[in-house]
UniProtKB/TrEMBL annotation:
Entry protein name: Cationic amino acid transporter 8, vacuolar
Family that this chain belongs to: Belongs to the amino acid-polyamine-organocation (APC) superfamily. Cationic amino acid transporter (CAT) (TC 2.A.3.3) family.
Single Gene Ontology MF annotation: amino acid transmembrane transporter activity
Membrane topology: Multi-pass membrane protein
InterPro entries xref list: AA/rel_permease1, CAT_C
Bilayer-spanning residue ranges: 70-92, 104-125, 146-166, 198-217, 224-244, 264-284, 296-322, 342-362, 419-441, 453-473, 479-500, 507-529, 535-553
Length: 582
């Protein structure tokens, strides 16, 4: 009888752990793989994963399973803890001061509506496909491997930039407890360009601590989150009530100091304030009853959070004139301005708590995104390994931690926020597209005619959304262009409505399909267009760098995984089309 092989040790660092695919076993294999890049890229553009593959097959790459330990109670407070703090304390003051003034409340309302539409999409996918990969897995199933990589690259960018931005915000609020300046504990370096010349060791320290806790265990992190979030909820009520008690209506005039353009530009950036919910969706693999717990956790928490944000920003701008708001520690300064010096310390402590729980939940979500991406071999599968004792992906958490610490050490908050908003909005737009594809297209089931009509309708919806965005960005305010684009958007969505749905959700589904996902596409494009040119440049530069990695590494690793037994063909220098497995 053959003896069972002993389990591999977790702490290992061999070449085969990082690059086990045939294309990387020798230099000649790699050269031949590069020669076949066009064929492989075409294969990956059209290759799609499946529910079964994401749910069961890929989990084997982690060798150990994550622990089923979360309930709807954990998810609701994770939603609250991850979202409240990730933007309201760190970026509301910046956008009220620089772009929106008192109308910042409308910016948060617009972003909240768009986020809620995205929450619907995430919830339907997470209920049916409860895996750690979140949007990455959902896009890989519906839009294919290449689009999933574009999303994966932006997810990893969002993880790094989001954590770094929170670390910088935490440092700002911490400094205001002891010193008048938010930059008190930062080190200024004269030779570096503006935005990168204030080194922040405090941000690095808090990132290391938060990620260390997340590596220790999921249930522990969740318990710390909900206990502290209950306390902060009471203080948020205090902040809002006191803000309205000390409100001066004169501070709300002018309500639109920067016009409608300022509102939408602020809305695009404060979208960061809602980004934590997608991290909660990645916890589906560790949820005991996903079909019940995920809708309660995601939709319930996001609806309440949108109302809370609007009330808090209205109270802020009513207490202090928008021109006097401290962009780094807005709420602390506001209480100091009205003479409640003691309250500013309470606000700072709650802000620190909110950003700390955002870091805790964010570090868990970022690591699980990274884990699923590694399971697919888009990045080395070594990062997918789950520790047998803690049930957490320690390597993935460490990777995100180290890179985000480096970024937070150098980069200022305004540089980070615009990049983060772009990547977040882009992924959420893709999620709405993926949901429509899931409802209206099933391979080998949907007729060619229906598929062509669906594609045409999708192009019309996306094209008209881009058209409205282009008109607004070019400062064209005549009604004719917007009316034409709106009519095309309506006709494209109506065309999808008339098509037969090929898949109906088994448990929980987005209501009013295709109207709500189509509206989500339009709103996300519009908010992307409201970002400044610098955000576009940074986004495309980062994407170009990531594409180089994909062409030289990612496409070959995923191709090998999708086409088993290809090694002999590679060695011979020949490569033919094979049946796609994943």
């Amino acid at each position: 009888m053959e003896q069972q092989k002993p389990p591999k040790p977790y702490w290992r660092f061999t070449k085969n752990d990082f690059f086990p695919e045939p294309s990387f076993q020798s230099l000649s294999n790699y050269k031949n793989a590069l020669l076949n890049t066009p064929h492989r890229l075409k294969d990956r553009v059209f290759g799609r994963s499946s529910d079964e593959n994401e749910l069961h097959n890929l989990q084997k790459e982690s060798e150990n399973r994550m622990k089923l330990c979360l309930t709807w109670w954990d998810l609701i407070w994770m939603g609250f803890g991850s979202v409240v703090g990730s933007g309201i304390f760190s970026i509301a003051g910046q956008e009220a001061h620089n772009h929106a003034g008192p109308s910042i409340v409308l910016a948060y309302a617009a972003s909240g509506l768009s986020a809620l539409l995205s929450v619907f999409c995430y919830t339907e996918f997470s209920v049916e496909i409860p895996v750690a990969g979140g949007s990455f897995s959902f896009l890989r199933i519906e839009l294919g491997d290449f689009i999933a990589f574009i999303a994966a690259a932006n997810i990893l960018l969002e993880a790094i930039v989001g954590a770094a931005g929170l670390g910088r915000s935490w440092s700002s609020y911490f400094a205001t407890i002891f010193k008048p300046s938010a930059d008190a504990f930062r080190i200024q370096v004269g030779g570096l360009p503006s935005g990168f010349n204030l080194l922040d060791p405090i941000a690095v320290l808090i990132l290391a601590i938060a990620n260390g806790i997340a590596m220790y265990g999921t249930k522990l992190t969740s318990s710390l989150n909900w206990i502290s979030s209950i306390f902060s909820s009471a203080v948020i009520v205090f902040i809002t009530v006191v803000g309205f008690v000390h409100a001066d209506t004169k501070n709300l005039t002018p309500f639109f100091p920067y016009g409608a353009e300022g509102v939408f530009q602020a809305a695009a950036i404060v979208y960061w304030s809602y980004t934590g919910f997608d991290m909660v969706a990645t916890m589906a693999e560790e949820t005991k009853n996903p079909s019940r717990d995920i809708p309660l956790g995601l939709v319930g928490s996001m609806s309440v959070i949108t109302v809370v944000y609007c009330l808090m920003t209205l109270a802020l701008t009513a207490m202090v004139n928008y021109t006097e708001i401290d962009v780094n520690a807005a709420f602390s300064f506001a209480f100091e301005k009205i003479g409640m010096n003691w309250a500013k310390y309470l606000v700072s402590i709650v802000a620190l708590k909110g950003m700390t729980t955002s870091l805790l939940v964010g570090s868990m979500g970022q690591a699980r995104y990274t884990t699923q991406i590694a399971r697919s071999h888009m990045i080395p599968p070594w990062f997918a390994l789950v520790h047998p004792k803690t049930g957490t992906p320690i390597y993935a958490t460490l990777a995100v931690t180290i890179i985000s610490c480096i970024v937070s050490f150098f980069s200022s908050l305004d540089v980070l926020s615009s990049v983060l908003s772009f990547t977040t909005l882009f992924i959420f737009m893709l999620m709405a597209v993926a949901l429509l594809v899931r409802r209206y297209y099933v391979q080998d089931v949907t007729s060619k005619q229906d598929f062509r009509i669906f594609l045409l309708c999708m192009v019309v919806v996306i094209g008209s959304s881009i058209g409205v965005t282009a008109l607004w960005s070019s400062k064209q305010r005549g009604w004719i262009g917007y009316t034409i684009a709106g009519v095309f958007w309506f006709l494209g969505t109506l065309g999808m409505q008339l098509l037969p749905k090929q898949r109906v959700p088994k448990i929980w589904g987005v209501p009013l399909v295709p109207w709500l996902p189509s509206l989500s596409i339009g709103m996300n494009f519009f908010l992307i267009g409201s970002l400044g040119a610098a955000a576009f440049y940074r986004f495309f530069i980062c994407s170009a760098i990531m594409m180089l990695y994909y062409l030289f590494v990612g496409v070959h690793a995923t191709y090998d995984v999708a086409h088993e037994n290809i090694l002999p063909e590679i060695v011979e220098g020949k490569e033919t089309a094979a049946k796609t497995v994943v």
